[in-house]
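thread: overnight batch results

M.L. [08:02]
morning all. the overnight job finished for the chain we discussed friday. pasting input first so we're all looking at the same thing
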Amino acid sequence: MKRNCKICKKPIVGRSDKIYCSNYCKNFYHKKLRYATKMAAIEINGFLKRNYAILLETLGKNKTQIKVYRNTLERKKFRFKYHTHLHVNSRNKTFYFVYDLAWMEFSDDEILIVRK
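M.L. [08:03]
and the structure it wrote out:
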């Protein structure tokens, strides 16, 4: 049974479980994979930093919590999908965190922003 390299499609000679024809092809594949993973992490981290900056700007320096309308955050391009972790309190309310700042959907139109 003839096998071909995963990268350059040349025939593979050697072990039966071999995937690449050379170290060059093997390194090329793994370098490309690492780059794709790194770029995804950079993009998501950018979204998290932007969300944090928006929450911090909206909350202000001296306040610990504030209630704002949802469209206030939407106008600033806040991405509700991106957060670092979440916490469900005893009243079954979910707080979505971006590092040390959190938001909770207070009602359909209002968002509570909290500094923890």
